Amino acid sequence: MSSVLIFYLSYLLSLALGLACVVCVCVWNSQWRCGFAWDGSALEFNWHPVLMVTGLVVLYGFGAVVYRIPLTWGQNKLPWKLLHAALMLLSLILAIVGLCAVFDFHNAFKGPNLYSLHSWIGIAAVALFAMQWVVGFAGFLLPCSPPTLRKLLKPVHVWLGGSILLLTVAACISGINEKLFFVLKANISGAQAYSSLPPEAVLANVLGALIVAFGLVVLKILLNSEWQRPDSRPENMTYAPLLQEENE
Amino acid sequence: MSSVLIFYLSYLLSLALGLACVVCVCVWNSQWRCGFAWDGSALEFNWHPVLMVTGLVVLYGFGAVVYRIPLTWGQNKLPWKLLHAALMLLSLILAIVGLCAVFDFHNAFKGPNLYSLHSWIGIAAVALFAMQWVVGFAGFLLPCSPPTLRKLLKPVHVWLGGSILLLTVAACISGINEKLFFVLKANISGAQAYSSLPPEAVLANVLGALIVAFGLVVLKILLNSEWQRPDSRPENMTYAPLLQEENE
Question: Can you quote a single GO CC term (chains A, B) (predicted)?
């Protein structure tokens, strides 16, 4: 099987896994956790998993691999850079709104913030992501940034990008696990214990497995050197870049 | 800074982070969780985090990067393959004993096994690791395995190796998080709630952060193409391999 065919199969798999993650986290929180509100209640908290999984994992993963699509390699890189930056900005905004939901929820009952390992890993992921977006924008999109800086920055940007994905996967797994232990207790009226694996627990565990699978496929696409966009510009380019010659 | 110097700095960092993980998990369970026993009690459970972190994370990580050390590239590959296989086997044995500890603990009070997302991710990691070890032994160490099979197997082996590390990091983070919510409850006599971040919580959270940092440094070493052992055998080889010519 050719490398390009394996790429497209991996890419389709990442799209399917990403969409499955979004469907699972939405169904879990709308059907089993009573839906959404923005009122400091548990319904506001429900935005947290939905926005983190949709923004910080799925959109982030989709945004990370846009340069890897071989069909785009014959085209000007700039529109793809703008798409990459836009997807990542949308991912970051969703993640920040998702953090607001959980801070609001804790503050509404004067609960403490940022004490659990889940929260430490998660906040580190969002902080690194925000830093990565700002440095990426300044280094790769501003016309004044010198090509030598871009060459130095690129491997760090790719490695930090993959590392942030690993952090977000670890944060999601610990968060889903923690949430299920919190809410699935036999002593809460009508609730079944997590340990008896009620349908909600199976759904949320499957969501966790899908997130891990999505992360692994995205990292595979990201790190395979054969699937990296070639550095040199093709000779048959037909339209000029908007900002400057892009060769990094 | 030269690539070799950066490698050795990264390698020293991975050694330091790995040792720090082992020290932290041992101090946590011996000083704060009352030490160890093999009697079905919570003291038997304490072997679980110690053996998983020491075996499945630290020894696994050390074993994963042995081929990357440039000093070994001028030498016959076989002793390093045997060291890699031995470290991985020791890691797998420690992980299996670590699983026995938690199954024994649950079975002693007829508690259920393998329902949490932590346990699903963790058992998947150990099962994939056992499969990877057997396939790796058959494919890379048995003299009857053909070189073409080895060439096909190698990228899959490297990718699955990195993936297993990602699974184990996610399992460790969710496990430490879960354990701290279980044991640090204000309503248990003398205990402080996790949310008030008592010293034990800080130590175990730091352990989680060290595990993530160790995983990231090991993955960086593993996936950097400049640090991969060159395929071709050096001309100044002085002693013959024990099993067969190793060129994969």
Answer: late endosome membrane
Question: What ipTM did this prediction achieve?
Answer: 0.92
DSSP string, B200-212: HHHHHHHHHHHHH
Interface with A, mutate which of B117, B183, B207, B212 (most A CBs under 10 A): B117
| A118–B180 CB contact, under 8 Å | no
B180–A112 C-beta distance less than 8 A: no
DSSP A74-100: TS-SHHHHHHHHHHHHHHHHHHHHHHH
CATH number at residue A10: 1.20.120.1770
d(CA A141, CA A246): 9
Structure tokens given for B29: 């369970």
Nearest to B197 among A115, A167, A225 (CB): A115
For chain A, the domain total comes to 1
CA–CA gap between residue B101 and residue B65 (Å, rounded): 28
Other Cβ atoms closer than 10 A to A109: 8
- Quote the minimal CA–CA distance from A243 to chain B in Å: 31
Cα separation, A24 vs B41, in Å, equals: 37
Instruction: List CB contacts (< 8 A) between A115 and chain B.
Output: 194-197, 201
Least Cα separation, residue A87 to chain B (angstroms): 24
Contact B212 A171 (CB under 8 A): no
- Establish if A248 belongs to a structural domain: no
CA A31, chain centre distance (Å): 23
Helix, strand or coil for residue B157? helix
* Domain assignment of residue B237, yes or no: no
Rg (CA), chain A: 20
How far apart are the C-alpha atoms of A171 and A118, rounded to whole Å?
A: 5
Per residue of chain B (248 residues), what is the pLDDT tens digit?
A: 788 999 999 999 999 999 999 999 999 999 999 999 999 999 999 999 999 999 999 999 999 999 999 998 998 999 999 999 999 999 999 999 999 999 999 999 999 999 999 999 999 999 999 999 999 999 999 999 999 999 999 999 999 999 999 999 999 999 999 999 999 998 766 779 999 999 999 999 999 999 999 999 999 999 888 899 997 554 444 433 444 444 44
* Nearest residue in chain A measured CA to CA from B196: A115
B211 alpha carbon, distance to own chain's centre: 10
Greatest CA span in chain B, whole angstroms?
Answer: 69
Q: Tell me the C-alpha distance between A177 and A171, whole Å.
A: 10
Tell whether A147 is covered by a domain: yes
How far apart CA A78 and CA B166 sit, in angstroms, is: 33
Range of the domain at B74: 3-227
Does residue B246 sit within a domain?
no
